[in-house]
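Thread: quick sanity check before group meeting

JM: Hey all, I'm pulling together slides for Thursday and realized we never actually wrote out the predicted structure for the chain we discussed last week. Dropping the sequence here so it's in one place. If anyone has concerns about the input, flag it before I start.
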Amino acid sequence: MVKKNYQQITQSDTRQTFIQHSVHHRARKTLFCNLPVSDTLQSMSRNSSSEALVLTTHIQGENNRSVTLLTPENGIVYATLFGGPKSKLRAQVSPFNRGKIWLYTDDSKHTCKITDFDVTNYHLSFRENLFKTWAASFAAEIVVKTKCAGSSAQCWSLINGLLDGMELTDENGSRLGLVRFLWRYLGLLGVRPQTRKCIACGKSFLTGTLTEATYKAAYEPGENGFACDECTDIFSRQFVLGRASLTYLEAVSDLSPREVRAISVDAQTMTEMKQLCFYLIENACGTKLKSLESGLGIL
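JM (edit): ok, ran it. Output follows.
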């Protein structure tokens, strides 16, 4: 009798355990099947490809390089390039080259390796012009420091527009192109001051003719705007802009790149805008920019 009861209890426990296991197995199977296809593939996929711009390369160990990339989908990507000086891939993965890149990612080791790079855009004139090289490095540092200003796609468009534009023009045109890039990037960051009217009285800066040199405005850091000469002592301020500078910056904000490129500026206007943009972009980054400090005489 005791033996029979024991067998019944054992059989009952066995059936209950089997039922629990079956329910648990079905739940796990249902949970896995309900996962989006993209999630399951992403967890297993280690090879990927994307459009990429090489921002910087640094020596890592004896033969390897640490590479900083900009991609339109994922923003800043850090990867390692393996290979010695004679490696063809090493010659391709050079700063400011753009094309399609193939990456191998090992999630368990937290590593990302460059396996191939098909370059579609070179900037050969940068090797022959110190300003272009330094301006490109300056722009790359800004992008990295600000993490693409929160918009990798727009950042991709802006910096590639600068690099491609400098490749097609001379040094003077490149200097003006850098100012346009900085002004547009300040807009992307959301910290670009408005240049249309005085922040104190509301008077428009865009009336009259550009040859009237007496009408100027001063930048007010506390208000992140410009005050006219009737509302403030402009000559006690660090940055004073003439009507030509204010009008050009407003044109960069409102007009298409093609339309703005057709506008020429004089040396004084160029200096006013450059000094202001350098100050604003470094202030927006919240830190000193190495490329700006070391290349101030060049930029």
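AS: nice. The two ends are 99 Å apart (CA to CA). Residues 1-44 have pLDDT under 50 and may be disordered.
JM: adding both to the slides.
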